[in-house]
Specification:
Layout: H1 2-20, H2 51-63, H3 69-72, H4 78-89
């Protein structure tokens, strides 16, 4: 019985430590070092609505050539917006 309780305790500890190491998801206009910051002088184009669709599909739009990566950088500062998300999901950073 003691071995069973020890195993449960170890599993609970491992789960807690694992969850504690996951950084908070980058959020537009959020707080903290992963906050996605878009300059207020720019309005979102219609292609970015709804934002949930855009966050999921923008790699396909860029990779298909419909929008060039350099075009994104007219409004997005790569270090303050793009690379926060790119680093979070583990894809290459924008230069």
């Amino acid at each position: 019985m003691n071995k069973f309780l020890l195993l449960i305790l170890l599993i609970a500890l491992a789960t807690t430590l694992t969850l504690a190491c996951v950084p908070e998801k980058p959020v537009k206009d959020g707080k903290g070092e992963l906050a996605v910051v878009i300059d207020r002088e720019f309005t979102s184009p219609v292609t970015h609505s709804p934002i949930d669709w855009w966050q999921t599909h923008h790699p396909h739009v860029v990779n298909s050539g419909d929008i060039k990566e350099k075009d994104c950088l007219y409004c997005h500062n790569a270090e303050r917006s793009c690379n926060n998300c790119h680093g979070y999901v583990g894809v290459r950073k924008i230069k």
